[in-house]
Amino acid sequence: MKKHIHRKGEINLDDILSGLYSRSDSYKIGAIAVFIGIVRGIGVKGDVERLEVEAYEEMAEDRLEKICRELEGREGIVAVEIHHFVGEFKVGEVLVYVAVAGSHRREVFETLIEAVERYKREVPLFKREMLRSGESYWIEEYTL
After folding, report:
1. Is the domain covering 5-139 a CATH 3.40.47.10 domain?
2. Is 16 helix (H, G, I), strand (E, B) or coil?
């Protein structure tokens, strides 16, 4: 099983793209789409200073792997990769990379959207925003 949960700096976009290009079936790839999620500086309750991300790692790994494998079963999709970071992050730092490689752009774009929506909904990731005011709160996104 490929690792999906990382500490900051363990993997970058170049690593992910290099892995896609070096696959034995890379000749089937006609399009790659990437979603990069970053820490935004404005939260629901004010200006964000930093964000803490935690995961129930074993379950998160299993669910991310399941999402990737299910989406890779689609016609025209060669690979789906989701790499989420845990730890403490400043505004503007990367939290997640989602990459989808496939034969044609339409399938790739549609699958990328579904991969992002599914990981947000299905994976036990927990985020706490720390505001410039000193207040902090947990963001409720995970629903399963």
Report:
1. no
2. helix
